[in-house]
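Progress report, Aim 2. The chain analyzed during this reporting quarter is listed below.
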Amino acid sequence: MGYDLDTNGNTVGDLAPIFVNTNSFTQSGPTANVNLNTNLNSDAPTITAGFDPLDPSGTSNYATSIQVFDSLGSTHLMTTYFTKTSDQNWDWNAVVDGGELTGGTAGELTTVGTGTLEFDASGNLILIDGNDLYTVTGDTSSDPIFPRPTATVPAGNLPWLNGAVDTQSVAIDMQTTQYASPSVVVSQEQDGFGTGTLVKLSIDAEGFIVGNFSNGAPRKLMQMALAKFTNPNALDKIGNNMYSQSTSSGVPVIGTVGSGVGNIFTNALELSNVDLAAEFVKMITTQRGFSANSKTITTTDEMLAEVINLKR
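Predicted structure tokens for the chain:
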């Protein structure tokens, strides 16, 4: 085994792989998490007919859409419609295109999750799907966003047609208020990723080689191993800044950062490790070669001059 010295005299050994497949990466667990930070207009008209997925815009007051990912990394558009049923009371309905679900019809929306929202007179969310946000065991907070007001698209409601995991559920964090202002999405986010390919590698201070993927997700791929010798100056040089164990160097103690064998400094300048004797030999050889080539120019010039003199 060969080792490469770092700036502290510790040797950097082979890479210990943590993940094998680094060519592509998807992240989408059995539960997708979605955050919807919205305000619903308290002055919106009441709709008593109920939500109809065949007429979503006519049976709802407001809607917002977000991309979610299945276990294969495929993208699906999920839209949540909000319907005001009475003062301070709303229904929410999450829908996807039926063509993406087993048994659904392409072009027609299929309801995959539904529930209710109730607000107090100050516009704060107090009930979601019948659960009182202020009487959760162990929670004494008066802040209306705690505990997290979560709505759920239950497992089994998303039997994706592409063969992805059909027990996926979606937890929707309803950071929702009801004030006398136009309905608006303040922010939204989700925790899934589509398929990504490896585009860049970097090393952190713990020695992990981090792969940055085209889907924007970083992932720790492997970790650098450090080897510490009793007498690192006695290592045998094998070329290309590589060293091998010798009888005088001692047996290597191999570990990682934090195990007492050394540290790794990223984005740091390395001390010079050039072999001056070898570089001087190369420079002299190059100089002699240049001198020899210059003599050919002189000889060629003399031969041409002699040819010209032949006419005289």
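Residues 276-309 form the longest helix (34 residues). The two ends are 73 Å apart (CA to CA). These observations will guide the mutagenesis work planned for the next reporting period.
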